[in-house]
Amino acid sequence: SSKEHGGDHYTVFDAGMRVLTQRRMEMELALRQAMESGEITVHYQPIVSLATGDVTGLEALARWQHPRQGFIPPSEFIPIAEESGLINELGALILRQSCRRLVELGRETPEGEKLSVSVNISGRQFKRPDFVQEVAGILAETGIDASRVKLELTESVLMDDADEAVRAIKNLKALGVKVVIDDFGTGYSSLSYIQRFPFDSLKVDRSFVGNMNEAEQNMEIVRAIIAMAHKLGLEVVAEGVELAEHKAALSELRCESAQGFFFSRAVPGEELGELMRRNWKPDPGPQVS
Ligand code: C2E
Ligand code: MG
Ligand code: MG
Ligand code: MG
C-alpha cells in the first residue's frame, strides 16, 4: 500500500534526491576534468608579522576558474572533493604546486627564501593512512626545506580519534613541517583539549576578528585566545584583518601575525614578487611600563 511505502512523500523525496545526485555527479566530473586541465590553481595570501610589518608567510588557497561558470569558490568545491574522495588528489596537487612556487620564490629573491607556506589539509586527506608518506614524497620531490611548510588542520579533524590524530601530527612533525590549528574558536574544542596535540601555532577565526572593535565581547574572546595560546607556547595568527584598527588592536594584544584583506587578498603566484617586498608599518603595540 501507499502507506507502507511512504506514499507521495517518498516519491517527491526520490525525485529531489535524483536531482541532487545528478548535480553532484556533474560537479564531481567537472572537478576531475578541472584538475587535469589546469583550471585549478593556487593563489597566495600574505601573512604579516605585526612586529616588523614584513610578509613572513603565505597561505595557499585553491582557486577554480571554470571556463563557462566563472569563479567557483572553495566553499563549494572542497566539500564535493571531500565527499567524492577527489580531495586526496586535489590536496596533493595543491601541496605540490605550493612547495614548487615557494622554492622558486626562494631562488628569485632574498625575501622569498625566508617565507613559509601554509597549506589547508582536509579531514579526509589527513585521515588517510598514507598521508604522512605522501607529504614526505612531495617534500623530497620539490626539494623544499620542510621547516618552511605549515599544514593547517581544523578542529573537526581532531574530534573522532584523538589518539590517532596525535600520532599523525607527531609523524608529520618528524618530517620537519609545522602544524597549525586553523579557524580556532569555531569548533567545540577548548584550549585545554587543543593542548593534547603538538601544534606550533594557532589561527584565530575571522568571525571573532572581523568586528572585534565594535563588539567588546569579541575583543575579549580574541584577548583570551591569544593569552591562553601564548601560555601553551603557541604563536598566534589572526585571520580576517580588514581594518587598520584590527591591526592596531592585535598588536596591542601581542598577536604575532595577521592575515586579511587589509593587507591583501590572495593573489596568483606570478604576482607575489612585488607583494613580498611590501611592508606595513608596525603599530606601537603594548607600552612597556
Ligand atoms: P581558511 O583556511 O580559513 O582560509 C581563509 C579564508 O578567508 C579564505 O577564503 C580567504 O580568502 C578568506 N579571507 C582572508 N582574509 C579575509 C578577510 O579579511 N575578510 C574575509 N571576509 N575573508 C578573508 P577562501 O579562499 O574562499 O577559502 C575558504 C576556505 O576553503 C578556507 O578557509 C579553507 O577552509 C578552504 N580551502 C581553501 N583552499 C583549500 C585547499 O587547498 N584545501 C582545502 N582542504 N581547503 C581549502
Ligand atoms: Mg586556512
Ligand atoms: Mg582559517
Ligand atoms: Mg577561516
Automatic annotation (TrEMBL):
Residues 24-280 form the EAL domain. Signal peptide: none annotated. This is Diguanylate cyclase. It comes from Solidesulfovibrio carbinolicus.
